[in-house]
Amino acid sequence: MFSKEESARLRKEFWTSFGKSFPRKWLLYNTKIKGFSFKFQADRKTAFVCLDFEHPEEIANELLYDQLLSLRSILESEFLPEVIFDDNYQLDSGKYIRRIYVLHEKKFSIHNKDTWRDCYEFYVETMTQFELFYYEYEDFIKQAI
Question: What residue stretches are annotated with the DUF4268 domain (predicted)?
Fold first, then answer.
């Protein structure tokens, strides 16, 4: 087991190393839609790339999620075949949100540096596809709200 401090140091090193290995400006929170953001996630056992719906107005989350659902077949067939839609995803904080994500299928732990490279490559490939999809359908998605 790792101490809290060692775990925090490894997490920081993981993200710093990713940024240095793949220096690029990602879309992430810059979608220009409130509460609609792309994220990289990693913990002791899993890694994934996600699109979170956390608008303060629940109706906006519902409308945006429904708009993405209408594009699901395109997202799956042309960009990310392994994408998962979850309209009731529970965050570590206990809060429930809508989330669309792709899980890194290979063995991974943020505490195991030997697994980092595969994860970084997964992040780059998956987020690139998510961004291409978003840019292609941005106007249509924004029509929801």
Answer: 10-137
Q: Write down the pTM of the prediction.
A: 0.94
Report the distance separating Cα 14 and Cα 10, nearest Å.
6
Number of residues in the chain: 145
Q: ∠ CA 68-65-28 to the nearest 5 degrees?
A: 80
- For 58, the token pair is 């629940």
Q: Which residues fall within 8 angstroms of residue 63, CB to CB, at 6 or more apart?
A: 144, 145
**Sequence letter at residue 85:** F
Domain extents in the chain = 4-142
**Tens digits of pLDDT across the chain (145 residues):** 779 999 999 999 999 999 999 999 999 999 999 999 999 999 989 999 999 999 999 999 999 999 999 999 999 999 999 999 999 999 999 999 999 999 999 999 999 999 999 999 999 999 999 999 999 999 999 999 9
